Amino acid sequence: MGKVLGDVLGLAAAVAISPLPIIALILILATPRGRLNGTLFTVGWVLGLSALGAVMLAIASPAGASSHSHPATWVGALKLALGVFLVLFGARLWHRRPKDPAQAQLPKWMAAIDHLTPLKILGLGLALSALNAKNAPLTIAAGATIGSAGLPVGQQVASLAIFVLIATLGLLVPLGVFLLGGERAKTTLADWKDWAAQHNIAVMAVLLFVIGLKLLGDGISILT
Q1: Which one, 50, 105, 120, 140, has least CB within 10 Å?
Q2: Cα–Cα distance, 200 to 198 (Å, whole number)
Q3: Range(s) of the domain holding residue 162
Q4: Residue 103: phi, psi to the nearest 5?
């Protein structure tokens, strides 16, 4: 189990350092129902990661993902494909990044956060974790890694739970600052939001490129 955790911790950290969900959460916390909606957004995030990871475990475990303690060929092919996707996506984002960080613009849907109902906030958290073009491939790769290790079911579930916990730290930190920081929290979170907004694309591009290369290496290693 220790080796599996070592393999997925990097993936979990890459999910945790996701500027857009962090910015969305900070904007949500600034709304009149910030305490409730911020918690619901985080719950939706956890549910999305858990559901996608569980689906991968359900697919990987009975499909012979592990043979004589070595991942099956299809796991290598999956990691190779995910690695290629992330490298290309990261390169595309880097090419499209604003030359002047101060000119970076947030997605238009963020302007409507003030008007979202609690149920839609929950759905937004779920979508940004399980349906996001960056986070979904990383979670799929983590699920395949855990499922391909031949661990008992209990250890698979524990490994996935640890992955989800680490991947959620990026939201738990600002949520904790908001709930415990008092009035000073507003200034702190505003500074974080401004920095994340300016460097969002560059941070994502570098993360995707580095993790994509790691998955490429893993996939080639398994296939050869």
Answers
A1: 105
A2: 6
A3: 2-223
A4: -90, 0
Structure-token pair, residue 193 = 């939001």
71 φ, ψ (degrees, to nearest 5): -60, 145
Instruction: Dig out the tokens for 45 from the structure.
Output: 């995030």
How many CA atoms are closer than 13 Å to the CA of 83, on its beta-carbon side? 17
CA distance readout (Å), 171 to 44, 106, 184, 209 = 11, 18, 18, 22
CA atoms within 13 A on the CB side of 23: 19
Distance (Å, rounded) from C-alpha 199 to C-alpha 93?
12
pLDDT tens digits for range 125-184: 999 999 988 889 999 999 988 887 778 888 999 999 999 999 999 999 999 999 888 778
179 to 19, 34, 115, 175: CA distances (angstroms):
20, 10, 22, 6
